[in-house]
Design goal:
It is built from 19 helices and 28 strands. The radius of gyration is 26 Å and the shape is globular.
């Protein structure tokens, strides 16, 4: 499938054409861009199959440049476009996957402009022009914020008045398309499943952010409500005490608009040195410029601080990945950031760091031999990632909603053979009390007690059959009763989980494996095909009715050969929606969020 991708900014338009094959295999057929719109002209650069052309052309704005693209592609012999993919910076709290950008979608996205005033207007202007130029092609939006919608409430919530939070004040995170690609590329380089890894993606460019990718999902990003929060950037400040607004207003008489403009356009490296280009700053620092030296130290310190924080947030780290113009090209900045992280088991190799070659989308490892943490450098490929997501969106089966039974899963444990013997005695076997609806699964007559630092939970069910590793599933409320911070995990994702004491009639054990199980749908290939679902995808499910109906976002689909189709939620989720026996849910098409009238 041939996909044209647009990445539109206020003063630039980047584009690429990709052929996407099975499994996301990709070949880039064309690369181009327009920049520096001024005085009726702009610069351009096009590249395909070894041929490069650059110069100036008479396009005075983004719309004119976008409208010229069909002629450019025709001149370069690029045809057969199946769809146009668009980078859209902000998708709000609901859009976690690509969507068709029709009139209704654009109208809803316009409402997000206050959250991304520097980015979304240009993104959406390119969409409007592209719809006029290619009216017969689907226009698909891929959102920078989408990858971060897996962030838990403790990450996205600001400790501010409820009225502010109700008005939409929360953390979103950005650069999601880049972080998603980089995490996948790192997993490929390490030859390990992404879902088994704890990765810190460090995107260092004119815009900069760090993302903790925990077992395949974004846990946190350094950017917040806007792309201002977090690292020092080219012209953006990064973290600033919000009290600065009041102070600057009182001391300098600045308005909120003036302060905000300065934080976006006159801060960061530019504010510290007068230049937003790290290459200039490094050259000046080497020549003895004290301001440039401070800027470099501050830039590296802020990044190193976030890496340490995110390693703590994930309970460890397997790989740190550098990307973006600075992350890819500045060996000295990588060294400055990584020095001092030996306590984490991270050490750079001098020669490997100095000899990075990224040709052919390479992802070289530059850690010292014996380092417990891999350090990887790779080019970000946002346009490629967008093309892959657009192709996958267009290829997915058409959803045909049907009722899905909802099962409420109370606290329970899955025991290993070793745990069973320790708790119930050597040679003990579980007694089957009654079968469960998932074939081959059953509840045992025996019970255990869970003990935490604050309290205990008695008469906890045991589910069979035995597993290779003990897993304990509780609700969020149970975790507070026990006094333990319990992560939300998919079943089987037990690395770095808390230790809990389990009491049985013959003994006790202290074991990890304590989780709040992520909500999920069990199904079989026949039912999955009928509903247009695929194994491993995340879907939204509408459950309940009336005032207490809820949409459970990002519900994992598990397709198993003999699976019984039902959705599993925990007792907290059931209570929130007033769910009882016989309740059913229905998978909601993501694009329905943008078409509430349909």
């Amino acid at each position: 499938m041939r996909i044209l991708v647009f990445n539109a900014g206020s003063s630039s338009l980047k584009l690429g054409v990709f052929d996407i094959g099975a499994g996301g295999a990709a070949v880039q057929r064309f690369k181009g861009g327009y920049e520096r719109f001024r005085a009726g002209l702009c610069t351009y650069r096009f590249e395909a199959e070894g041929r490069v052309e650059a110069g100036e052309v008479a396009h005075d704005d983004l719309a004119a440049a976008t409208a010229a693209v069909p002629g450019v592609l025709a001149d370069w012999g690029v045809d057969g476009i199946a769809a146009v993919g668009h980078r859209v910076v902000h998708g709000g709290p609901e859009i976690g996957a690509p969507v068709v950008l029709d009139d209704a979608a654009l109208a809803r996205l316009e409402g997000l402009t206050p959250l991304a005033p520097l980015h979304n207007p240009a993104n959406l202007e390119a969409v409007r022009v592209a719809r006029r130029v290619w009216p017969e092609l689907p226009q698909i939006g891929v959102f920078d914020t989408a990858f971060h919608l897996t962030n838990p409430a403790r990450v996205t919530t600001y400790a501010v008045p409820k009225a502010w939070r109700d008005a939409g004040l929360r953390r979103f995170g950005f650069h999601g398309t880049s972080h998603h690609y980089v995490a996948q590329r790192a997993a490929e380089a390490l030859d390990r499943p992404l879902g088994d890894l704890r990765i810190i993606s460090v995107h260092l460019g004119n815009g900069a952010s760090v993302c903790a990718v925990n077992l395949g999902a974004s846990l946190e990003s350094s950017m917040g409500l806007t792309p201002l929060e977090g690292l020092v950037m080219g012209t953006r400040s990064g973290d600033v005490d919000p009290g600065a607004f009041g102070y600057l207003h009182r001391q300098l008489g600045l308005t909120i608009e003036e302060i905000e403009h300065a934080l976006y356009h006159d801060s960061g490296l530019k504010g510290l040195t007068g230049s937003a280009d790290m290459r200039d700053v490094e050259d000046r620092a080497g020549a003895g410029d004290a301001e440039a030296q401070l800027a470099i130290n501050l830039y590296a310190y802020r990044a190193r601080k976030y890496i340490g924080a995110y390693a703590a947030a994930m309970g460890g780290v397997d790989a740190v990945v550098f990307t973006g113009g600075i992350g890819e090209n500045s060996a000295s900045m990588r060294r400055r950031i990584c020095d001092g992280l030996d306590f984490m088991g991270l050490r750079l190799d001098h020669d490997r760091n100095m000899g990075v070659d990224l040709a052919g989308r390479a992802a070289p490892q530059i850690q010292a031999y014996g380092s417990r943490v891999a350090v990887i450098v790779t080019e970000t490929a946002e346009q490629l990632q967008i093309a892959r997501e657009v192709a996958a969106h267009l290829a997915r089966p058409v959803q045909a909603p049907r009722p899905i039974p909802v099962a409420v899963s109370g606290r329970h444990v899955h025991l290993s053979a070793e745990s069973l013997a320790a708790l119930f005695g050597a040679g003990a076997e579980l007694t089957i009390a009654h079968p469960l609806r998932q074939p081959g699964n059953w509840a045992a007559a025996e019970r255990v007690t869970l003990v935490g630092p604050k309290g205990r939970l008695e008469h906890v069910a045991i589910l069979g059959p035995l597993r290779k590793r003990t897993q304990i599933e509780v609700s969020r409320t149970d975790s507070f009763a026990l006094g333990i911070d319990v992560p939300v995990r998919d079943s089987g994702q037990l690395e770095g989980t808390p230790v809990i004491r389990i009491l049985g009639p013959a003994g006790q054990i202290d074991t990890d494996g304590l989780i709040v199980a992520a909500r999920h749908i069990h199904t079989n290939p026949t039912d999955a095909a009928a509903m247009g679902l695929t194994d491993g995808e995340l879907v939204d499910v509408r459950v309940g009715s009336g005032d207490r109906a809820l949409t459970f976002a990002r519900t994992l689909v598990r397709v198993q050969p003999t699976g019984f189709t039902e959705m599993h939620i925990d007792t907290d989720e059931a209570n929130a929606a007033g769910i009882g026996p016989g309740c059913e849910g229905e998978v909601v098409d993501l694009e329905a969020h943008l078409h509430p009238e349909s």
